[in-house]
């Protein structure tokens, strides 16, 4: 019983920490604020163009994924700055790779957006 209780309390604590992290990201990180704003714009576009349920699912997953990836990228940058605050080629490479991962998905998201919206525009 004790173990079961501590399992649920620990899960609850983890959710609280994760919520705190998400709040910090959305309120302090410029790149995530931008993605959040784009997400809101795309949500309005979704209602305006009356996209289908499948398109909504793709759009919501894409907005969530890009913000989550930006969050991971920010966390990697924080770790890099923490373990090596000075300039180092390897730190630069690590940060570039993390940013590159976000970039790959950002391009994917733009292509998916074009596939959904271009036929509705023309
Ligand atoms: N300590 C460092 N050593 C070597 N190169 C670095 C270092 N810090 C940053 N860079 C280079 O500068 C780029 C930008 O790094 P920075 O940490 O400013 O990220 P950013 O993309 O501007 O993120 P943010 O705007 O969220 O701070 C990195 O991708 C890397 O090429």
From TrEMBL:
Cofactor-binding details, from the entry: Mn(2+), Zn(2+), Cd(2+) and Co(2+) support activity to lesser extents.
Positions of transmembrane segments: 21-44, 56-76, 97-118
GO cellular component: plasma membrane
Binding site for substrate: 70
Membrane topology, as annotated: Multi-pass membrane protein
Molecular function, one GO term: ATP binding
Binding site for ATP: 17, 29, 77, 95-96
Gene Ontology annotations of biological process type: phospholipid biosynthetic process
Keywords recorded for this protein, A-Z: ATP-binding, Cell membrane, Kinase, Lipid biosynthesis, Lipid metabolism, Magnesium, Membrane, Metal-binding, Nucleotide-binding, Phospholipid biosynthesis, Phospholipid metabolism, Transferase, Transmembrane, Transmembrane helix
Gene3D superfamilies on file: 1.10.287.3610
Subcellular location, record wording: Cell membrane
Coiled-coil boundaries: none
Record carries keyword Transmembrane: yes
Binding site for a divalent metal cation: 29, 77
Sequence similarity: Belongs to the bacterial diacylglycerol kinase family.
Protein name: Diacylglycerol kinase family protein
Species whose genome carries this gene: Bizionia argentinensis JUB59
């Amino acid at each position: 019983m004790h173990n079961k209780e501590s399992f649920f309390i620990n899960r609850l604590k983890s959710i609280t920490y994760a919520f705190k992290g998400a709040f910090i990201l959305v309120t302090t990180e410029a790149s995530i604020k931008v993605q959040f704003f784009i997400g809101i714009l795309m949500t309005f576009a979704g209602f305006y163009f009356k996209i289908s349920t499948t398109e909504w699912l793709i759009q919501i997953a894409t907005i969530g994924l890009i913000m989550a990836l930006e969050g991971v990228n920010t966390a990697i940058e924080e770790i890099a700055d923490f373990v090596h605050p000075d300039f180092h080629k390897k730190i630069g490479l690590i940060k570039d790779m993390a940013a590159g991962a976000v970039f790959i998905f950002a391009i994917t998201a733009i292509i998916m957006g074009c596939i959904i919206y271009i036929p509705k525009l023309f």
